[in-house]
Amino acid sequence: MEDWLHIASQIPDFAKGAIAVFISLLGGWGIWAKTKKNVAKQESGAAEHETKTVEEKVEQDRKRGTAEDFKTLRELVNTLQQQMIKMQTEHLEQNQKMSEKYEDRIEKLRNDYDGQIKKLRKDFDELHIEFQQVNRNSITLNNQLEKILTEKAELERVVAKKNIEIMALKSELEHDGTFGIRIRTQETRSSHVPRIRLDQYKKLLIIEGSSTPDNAAADSIFKPVLALLPDYFERTNELAVEFRLTFCNTISIRRIQAIIDFFNTQYREHRRSISAVWFYEEGDTDWCEQGEAFREASEFPFEVKAEKK
């Protein structure tokens, strides 16, 4: 402080006046600055107060608005909840109605189905009974048919036997002491007929002699043989055949071939024991060749044998 006083004593008077002015100005500036600062402070405080007031108002408005919005939102939520409850109630009611409706339809369909099943089962039982009756009738008819067929076969056998007897009578058959059957034939000026003998005990068929008949005469000679043979094979399964012919015309050869064909069928299908011998005079090559031709046409044992004159 003393230093400042010492410095101040050394300053001239004019300078002191200037300094006083300067200090006066400086003090005024300080007062202005302080005043300005106070004003600014006051203004700042007023601004802060106003800002705070605005913020409080905004907060109040916000709170008030939020409360109102929240109230509105709650009312909206309540309304939506009421609508949802109403919709759920209506939906449940509709479901209940539809469920009852479909349950009624399902029950009706079930009853109809059960009724149809019962009707079908009843119809099936009736058809089954009818089928059983038809089956029994079919069995009865089959038995009757078998019986009729058996009687028919027996009747046919009897008829065939009677036909054989008639044909035998027409052919003037006669029995000799060997229990054979001989076909009586007559020779004419224009033809010769063979002698045919079937011995049932010896199981032997002999055809011998010369055979040059016409068609009508050949039928009357050879057809009775073919008629007798089926009945013969009903009694026995064996037969030996001897062809002791000296000559045959074409008509007779065809008739003999028919007899051989019959023997082939009996031998092949019925397993008959059949054998045949074709006799020819030694040296007669033509008649030997004819026998060979019959042998080749035979399925059963067939022998071609030469005899001395």
What's the short version?
With 309 residues, this protein is of the alpha/beta class.
Description:
By secondary structure, the chain is α/β, with parallel strands linked by helices. It has two domains: 69-156; 171-307, 2-Layer Sandwich (Transcription Regulator spoIIAA). 71% of the residues lie in helices and 15% in strands. The protein contains five helices and seven strands; from the N terminus they run ααββββαβαβαβ. Strands 1-2-3-4-5-6-7 form a seven-stranded mixed β-sheet. Helix 4 links the parallel strand 5 and strand 6. The longest helix has 158 residues, at 13-170. The protein is rod-shaped and about 200 Å long. Mean pLDDT is 78; it is low at 169-180 and 184-190.
Helix and strand layout, with pairings?
Blueprint (H helix, E strand, L loop, with lengths): L1 H9 L2 H158 L2 E3 L4 E4 L11 E5 L4 E8 L3 H21 L2 E11 L1 H20 L3 E9 L3 H12 L5 E6 L2
Parallel strand pairs: 4-5, 5-6, 6-7
Antiparallel strand pairs: 1-2, 2-3, 3-4
Helix pairs in contact: 2-3, 3-4
